[in-house]
Write a structure and sequence with these properties.
The chain is mainly α. The chain has 13 helices and no strands.
């Protein structure tokens, strides 16, 4: 009888170890992470956000390298987009601050306790991280365009990819950005249960963003800043045609849709 009980206990432990964490547990992990990040000093958030902006430039660089060495076929985009996750892998696995991750991690603590203090902390973090991300992508764009370390052919390929990514109208960009925001929030939600598969979760979600041509405010800003610095895009078009619509779309997809839905499915169990 005792052996049977021990066997049942071991089986139960084995099943628990291999099972996916319950939804409230995933919610609590993401919420706690958001609380910890909101409590960090501004200087830490700023430098981490700047590093993330610099890292994100490697997505465009990797895509350009792949395109430069591939002949033009119908499936070329499917292969070239494999370079898009590179920057995200550097940022997420390196625990650098990325604005579109914060559209869910910062919002969940606010939903759990909608106080003036939490709203202020969330706004502070969003402002610091977004500004730092964009500062990083601007520096990266200027470096790629003017530093004598990138071959002219590779630089032209980066500009060509950038021009193609920003060819949509403002309204189209906004709606496409909703999908990117939703996928980024889904990635953050899946990572706590992914264990050793975190790498593949990041690759899959960000590859869908890249291959689907769904604009991302940070990754896309590298492309936009390169076009501006090269004289191919005006400041007005940068703000009205890319920055504002894409920022709004990413926030709607990550916060209004995914974060609210995630909170709604567990709010009666908290």
């Amino acid at each position: 009888m005792k052996r049977a009980q021990e066997k049942d206990s071991r089986q139960a432990e084995h099943i628990e170890e291999r099972s996916t964490p319950r939804t409230p547990l995933i919610y609590d992990v993401v919420r706690r992470y958001g609380e910890e990040e909101m409590a960090r000093p501004a200087v830490s958030l700023g430098w981490s956000g700047l590093a993330a902006g610099l890292s994100m430039s490697f997505s465009l660089l990797a895509e350009a390298i792949l395109r430069l060495h591939l002949t033009e076929y119908d499936w070329q985009r499917l292969v070239v987009s494999l370079g898009y996750p590179v920057g995200f892998l550097m940022v997420v696995l390196g625990r650098q601050q990325l604005f579109t991750e914060n559209t869910i991690t910062v919002v969940l603590p606010v939903m759990a306790e909608p106080s003036a203090r939490n709203f202020g902390c969330a706004a502070r973090m969003w402002a610091i991280v977004l500004a730092a991300n964009l500062a990083g992508t601007l520096l990266a764009a200027l470096f790629c365009l003017f530093a004598p370390v990138i071959e002219p052919s590779l630089r032209e390929t980066m500009l060509a990819i950038s021009a193609e990514s920003l060819q949509h109208g403002a309204l189209d960009m906004a709606f496409r950005a909703v999908t990117a925001g939703f996928l980024m929030a889904a990635m953050v939600w899946l990572i706590p249960a992914a264990d050793a598969a975190q790498f593949w979760i990041i690759v899959l979600m960000t590859y869908l963003i890249g291959v689907g041509d769904f604009p991302h405010i940070v990754a896309g800003s590298v492309e936009a800043f390169m076009l501006v610095a090269n004289g191919e895009l005006g400041i007005g078009a940068l703000l009205g045609g890319f920055m504002l619509p894409v920022l709004a779309g990413n926030i709607v997809g990550g916060t209004v849709l995914f974060a609210l839905i995630s909170y709604a499915q567990v709010m009666k169990e908290l």
